[in-house]
Automatic annotation (TrEMBL):
Taxonomic classification: Bacteria, Pseudomonadati, Bacteroidota, Cytophagia, Cytophagales
Glycosyltransferase 2-like domain location: 16-138
A GO term, aspect molecular function: glycosyltransferase activity
Species annotation: Hymenobacter qilianensis
Pfam families in UniProt: Glycos_transf_2 (PF00535)
Leader sequence segment: none
UniProt record similarity statement: Belongs to the glycosyltransferase 2 family.
Keyword rRNA-binding (UniProt): no
UniProt keyword annotation of Transferase present: yes
Keywords, ordered alphabetically: Glycosyltransferase, Transferase
Protein name: Glycosyltransferase family 2 protein
Length: 362
């Protein structure tokens, strides 16, 4: 299907499910089954948009045939994005959405039957909310390993979490402040996306590229950018989906790659967190802010490895503490090795923030 130009169209209230997929022929069927089972009040239109992101296994053909077998009257529209990287596919999917609200559905997500209705109602009744997300339950091709509960947050399973001082807490319902949601199943108001296009927003991320790299971050970035534009981002515990994991994702090698992948996203996301902080404008420049953030982060990392807690972890082989400490040190090293590039990230985000402030004042 050829993309349509929707840059100036006023969209009706409804939901566009956006599936951006890479080689998911073995799992796309159940994802579509759960979408077809959505229970929706009469009069709410919706659709499914599937973007084949450089697939080589016939995913889109399988999806089209499976959707026809389901016999639903809801349209499934297929597009192809040959450039690897989720961000490219997401852009194409958003550009083709025909309704005011989009829901980003990964090809391993299995939504509860009331998912659409809950998200639609929340966005309809809260016009300042641009993004809504929920909680995920893990489902598995094989029994999960004993270590999985410790690492489930890295797999986007459970309730999204945030740091409260030294502790990690589950997000409460409602406005999450300067925090982030799981990207899987995230609702996005199309108005936000259109505003970003109007502002000529350029993502700092290329998005995860199939199995080549596990470094992502575009979902977190979208949460931060929405807040820079003055919107609210909400968590809703009633939104529930299953996050299906194949056996190859439950190996220690994959787990470790996934756990350390935020190292390379940290500097870019750090630029957004810095921009969201209330700092004295007269004593704040991108370079100075980066130096402050780097020193604070470095002190935390080195304090961790010099702590009694870390010494005990070495003796008892406490894998969670050891890996957490290693991740912190890797992040510090990445900042040092790429300091010039990271300064550019901070400058780009601060320039975008200034642009938004100028437009909002007009």
């Amino acid at each position: 299907m050829q993309p349509e130009d929707k840059s100036v169209e006023i969209l009706p209230a409804g939901v566009s499910f956006l599936i951006c997929t890479y080689n998911s022929v073995s799992r796309i069927g159940e994802t579509l089954n759960r979408l077809a089972q959505q229970v929706v009040k009469p009069g709410i239109p919706w659709e499914v948009i599937l973007v084949d992101n450089a697939c080589t296994d016939g995913t889109s053909e399988q999806a089209e045939a499976h959707w026809k077998q389901l016999g639903t009257t809801i349209p499934l529209r297929l597009y192809k994005e040959p450039r690897p990287g989720k961000n490219f596919a997401v852009k194409l999917a958003f550009s083709q959405a025909r309704y005011q609200y989009a829901c980003i559905v990964d090809d391993d997500n299995r939504l509860a039957p009331d998912y659409l209705q809950i998200g639609f109602d929340l966005l309809e009744s809260n016009p300042r909310v641009a993004i809504v997300g929920g909680q995920n339950v893990g489902s598995f091709e094989v029994p999960p390993p004993s270590w999985f509960p410790l690492f489930q947050a890295n797999y986007a399973v459970g309730v999204p979490i945030y740091k409260a001082g030294k502790n990690v807490q589950p997000l409460p319902d409602g406005n999450i402040g300067a925090n982030i949601l799981w990207g899987a199943g995230m609702f996005v108001r199309l108005k936000l996306w259109r505003e970003l296009e109007h502002l000529n927003f350029k993502s700092l991320f290329a998005g995860r590229q199939g199995t080549k790299t596990l470094t992502a971050g575009e979902d977190d970035e979208l949460c931060y950018v929405a807040q820079l534009l003055g919107y609210e981002v909400w968590y809703c515990s009633s939104l529930k989906l299953e996050h299906y994991m194949t056996a190859n994702r439950l190996t220690t090698d994959y787990r470790n790659r996934l756990y350390y992948s935020p190292v390379w996203a940290a500097s870019r996301l750090g630029a957004y967190r810095s921009a969201l902080m209330k700092r004295d404008a007269e004593q704040s420049t991108p370079t100075l802010n980066l130096i402050k953030d780097f020193l604070y982060m470095s002190w935390g990392a080195f304090r961790q490895i010099l702590s009694l807690r870390y010494a005990k972890a070495l003796l008892t082989n406490d894998i969670m503490i050891l890996m957490s400490s290693k991740q912190q040190i890797m992040t510090v090293i990445n900042y040092v090795m790429n300091f010039a590039d990271i300064i550019d990230y901070y400058k780009i985000v601060e320039e975008f923030k200034s642009k938004v402030k100028y437009i909002l004042r007009k």
